[in-house]
Amino acid sequence: MKQAKLSLIAMATMLAASSAAAGDTEFKFGGYVKADVMFSDYSNGAPDSGSLSRQFYVPGTIYGVEGNGEQVVDFQARESRFNFKTSTDLGGHKLSGFIELDFMTHADGNERVSNSYSPRIRHAIVSFDNWTVGQTWTTFQNPGALPENLDFVGAAEGTPFVRQSMVRYTNGGFQFAVENPETTLTPNGGGGRITSGSGMVPDFVARYNFKTEGGAKFTVAGLARQLNIEKDGLDAQTLGYGVSFTGVVPVGDDDFKVSATVGDGMGRYMALNYANAGVIDNNGDIETISSYGGFASYRHWWNDKWRSSFTLSGFKADNTESLTGLGVNKESYSGYVNLLYSPIKPMTVGVEYMYAENTKESGDKGELNRVIFSVKYVL
Length: 379
What we know:
Number of strands: 21
Strand content: over 45%
CATH architecture: Beta Barrel
Number of domains: 1
InterPro entries: DcaP
Radius of gyration: 22 Å
Helix content: under 10%
Distance between the termini: 32 Å
Signal peptide: 1-22
Oligomer: single chain
CATH class: Mainly Beta
Keywords: Signal
CATH topology: Porin
Protein name: Porin
Organism: Shewanella woodyi (strain ATCC 51908 / MS32)
Largest sheet: 16 strands, antiparallel, barrel
Structural class: mainly beta
Number of helices: 2
Mean pLDDT: 93
Order of helices and strands: HEEEEEEEEEEEEEEEEEEHEEE
């Protein structure tokens, strides 16, 4: 009976593939397997094993847990991912779909027995000619400019980094999008983050991509958003904005990557929400928080199989201490150096050292020294 079921499944798959081929539809399966071993030293005591900071570097999560040991080792294969893409030619129009999943950010498993974790959606989009609908990288971010680091994000505090649902229109180098809104605020006087969950106005993003005759690629992006709060007796709105620039410049066989972002009320769009978009003032209104950040990364090819990246990243928020209190995040910096080896094109093994320092308005600091060993195989 089991063999019959498998045969039926195989037959259905073959029929679907044949039908797709007849309709000029192409299927592509991709992804990669990545295994990491991370040796970490937290200056104030390591977070517990289920903490996000134990999966990858997240600014604001390395202040430590008093009483815990400072040195820990973590083995994981969470970053492994798989994706599926279809592309169909409809009388000169292009229809495509893309979905990708990985296993990061979850705490539903444990390190005691199975180390099993639920898959999560990274991307799920449908595209028709110039239109894209679904969840993917925010138009405010240029993922092509991210440095080649072994850490999951790499340069986390220096880059916009958001995936969310949107409607995007692309025409040549221009992109325009309306994207999912979400406001994060600091209570008056400080305290736990307020996530509003309210508001009817989407976030608006415009971006221009261009390149030079020498092969350098650049992007300029602008963000406009309404910050909104309607809960717990609060009812306030204000405007937030941001401007971001990225560049990827070839230097012989090497390349130089740079990003610079500045804005007022950007909040969650920068540094994995290290700082909030605003703070509630004494009148119950929203006062925006200005912030800026960026990174620079140089990748050098020693030969056709060995390469290294050298990366510096930083972020700073201009908090109004009388409103936010002294417990909020103020600035974050990190640096990375790695050595990667690809004996064959699909496979990379490497080692990376990273150092990060986070500081609160009170002057309290957290430091992280981490060495990562990784093996990655592209499917």
